[in-house]
Design brief:
This protein has 192 residues and is mostly helical. It has 6 helices and no strands. Helix 4 packs parallel to helix 6. The two termini are 23 Å apart.
């Protein structure tokens, strides 16, 4: 019965879309920096480390943010919007190589801030007695996103569309906000 609930599929969609963006950074960001901005392989690979470390620090900060608000969906929507916009700015090329590395690190921080609130949002959206089943279904969006992202964006990379690949990741993050808003409507409607 829980599979008939739209909120479960909105949560799944959120995980799928946000993971698509993460997979682009993990798989292609160093190559994008190397090809578009001509930075060395060594510097380009720092991008992934900077993104992940900033994401971890963002999670730490996000834990305090999640503790201080009841509107977890708004925190997640804000964090993903900021991350998506930062990624689009990085894709535009205006920041140069080092600026793009910094911009992607800031994206990781932003997405990280939303992490703890994301988990609280899912918990609040879960029907009573279905926590394990819902979490299993929703979190399978992560694996699906990691599986689909290289299939879509790998083709773009193969054809030399490096900035479009990064922009696509930004669009995926922004699209994940639509799912968050739908989950938030469900949560606020249920509370009312």
């Amino acid at each position: 019965a829980f599979l008939r609930l739209p909120v479960v599929w909105w949560c799944f969609s959120f995980f799928l879309l946000s993971t698509v963006a993460l997979a682009v950074v993990q798989s292609f960001a160093p190559s994008i920096l190397e090809k578009v901005h001509g930075v060395s392989v060594e510097v380009a690979t720092y991008t992934l480390s900077a993104y992940m470390l900033s994401g971890a620090f963002g999670m730490l900060v996000g834990g305090f943010v999640a503790h201080s608000t009841q509107f977890s969906d708004r925190v997640v929507a804000s964090a993903m919007t900021a991350g998506g916009l930062l990624m689009l700015v990085c894709a535009s090329g205006v920041l140069g190589g080092t600026g793009t590395l910094v911009g992607l690190a800031m994206t990781g921080f932003s997405v990280g801030i939303g992490g703890p609130s994301r988990d609280l949002m899912i918990k609040r959206a879960t029907p009573a007695g279905a926590t394990g089943r819902v979490y299993g279904t929703v979190y399978s969006g992560l694996d699906t996103g990691f599986a689909l992202s290289p299939l879509i964006f790998g083709r773009l990379m193969d054809h030399g569309h490096y900035t479009i690949t990064l922009a696509g990741a930004g669009v995926a993050l922004l699209a994940s906000v639509v799912a968050v808003v739908a989950v938030g409507r469900h949560l606020h409607g249920r509370a009312a």
